[in-house]
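Task: encode each sequence below as structure tokens.

Item 1
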Amino acid sequence: MQIKKMLRLSIALCLAVTVSLPGCGLYDLPDEIDDPSPSIEDFAVEPKQTQTNKRGDEIFSLVYDTGASLNPLTCADSSNTVLMGLMFEGLFYIDEEFTAQPLLCRSWTSLDGLNFIFEIRNGIIFHDGTDMTADDVVYSVNHARTIGPYVNRLSCVSDVFSENGLVKIVLSKPNMQFPALLDIPVMKSGTGDDTIPVGTGPYTYTEAADYRFLSAFTQYRDYTKLPIQRFYLKEYETEDLIQAFEKSYIDLVVTNTSEPGFVQFSEEFEKRLAATTEMHFLGFNNKQGYCASALRRLILSSLIDRDSLTTTLLPDTVPVVLPVNPLSPLYLMEVADTALIKPESINDFMISAFVEDFDHDEELEYISNNQVTDFALDMIVNRENNKKVSAARQIAETWKSKGYNIILHEMSWDAYQTALNAGQYDIFYGEVKLTCDFDLSELLGTSGTANFGVSDSELDSLIYAFNSSGKETRLEATKDLFVYLCDNVYIAPLLFEKLAVFTHRGVVSNMIPTQQNIYHRIKDWHIEF
């Protein structure tokens, strides 16, 4: 599980991830280039089309940072990271419902969720013309265990080896959904530390004269279905990206409107949304004070207007009451529909929880140890993201309107982290990037690295059963886990973020971006100029 800085590990303050796209057909490169570092105006093209926002050239360009690598394990540049989906492939890909589908893997088996056997596909060719083998896969998994963004998710791996052409992986704890973690890039053995490792993807990095581009790989298995022969790579400063896109010098932009520095474009452009595993939620101090009661936590959660949050303050997000993206088949509507108290029943539940304005001072009190107790709830939020602060403010105002005395602390990261670790809060606004198997061990398990105060052996057992359940028992294990979470309300899930992908109208069709790969199913794309 990758936890954002909002939850103790490093926060990714997502500036716009921009990519450019439009072009079809091969273009001959010029023999000479006078200016190897052209400005925006050097790429100006008079439109050939009159349709709004439709490209007028037949060059498909992507944003690329020449100062960063194209190594998926070491690259920290957002623009270059997006390009990896064109150059590398994994044993599996993650579809739009966060389900693992075989890609470089032909088949797999596991009887216990601990020992996995993977048969790799035949005829997969690396960009250097050599065949992919099981040893290359073993090398790639082992390398990803030691460096880069996949280290945490692969911490459960205790051994990886090849035997008779098969890849065998042994886990330290059972997880029947482990293939959902194996969309990691497969590289040729020995190239993992290169600036550009050797991959198997549909496009390969090429330089000619002073041009850089991704060229369709002629030995790729679906080469004849690829929508374009070359993606040209252009470099722009961050402040020039919006202008470059709006003037059609680049053709695709990826942004997260929930993050600082997001890029927002007009409705004139086509916008596609990609679901993510990035969840906003509220955490509670369940050890002491008002929030020590599960019923009182449930009342607080039920008062939140999640629809308002996702339509007014955090657009391009989806409201949730369960800790799983609603596009996943794991999001059980039969549980979600009964997770919260209906508005008309709130007052009855408050009376049952002994929460009332007993002294008629327009603020609530609750009964503790047979005594009426005044209380104030300290809510903390990291102030580095204005949208999350606005969401926390709206939630606090909603509670205040019901008589709660809420003190909202908008804190620096250091102060926020200190308060979390010391348990100096009643409620915190958090964000976490879950893995695609939606394993909650790190967030809610007793020994989880992102767990703040939850210690429940029964919950640990339910998470274990959820992870180790196979196809026949998955539904039952999922329901048991989520019903328990709804009853105990250790966290209040709020929403999941989406990535927004903008293109010029009428240029790209059949595009279905995912969180893992904006170029998901690139062979199905159609590009028109």
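Item 2
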Amino acid sequence: MDCRHIVFYGTLQLECDKFRELELDRHLVFVSDCFFRGDLFDIEDMRTGHNYPAMVDGAGTVKGQLFHIREPSFLHAADLYEGIRPGDAPAQSDYRREILRLTRPEIDAWVYIYNQSVADCLKIDGGDWLTHIAEKNCGTRKQG
């Protein structure tokens, strides 16, 4: 399906270091903030000690950023970044990429959906990764 929009709801948003490190502005044009149906979780990578977001189907609302894709070939690179390898069975990947209808703005866009269990993971109330990280970091600072 020819869809030229993608949503990032976590570490690839404009405000995050990865957006600049990966030079995503060469491949994408920011459209607007967006909202879509789903539940967002905070996943801890035991190997690196870093946390990342995972969106799964659910009744909540997730906040993300909508981008226009300059070249469709970008999707292959994005898939590799998200751990989706050509030829792998879908269950082998942490994520799968699907087209979802956003609730605001009302448009179809590619979204990465977490493909593993979130049973032992922290659900992010409000579905906003950037707010969650800001609150988490603020809560860990020493008073002085």
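Check on item 2: The first helix runs from residue 17 to 21. Strands lie at 5-8, 28-44, 51-69, 95-101, 108-114, 122-123.
End of task.
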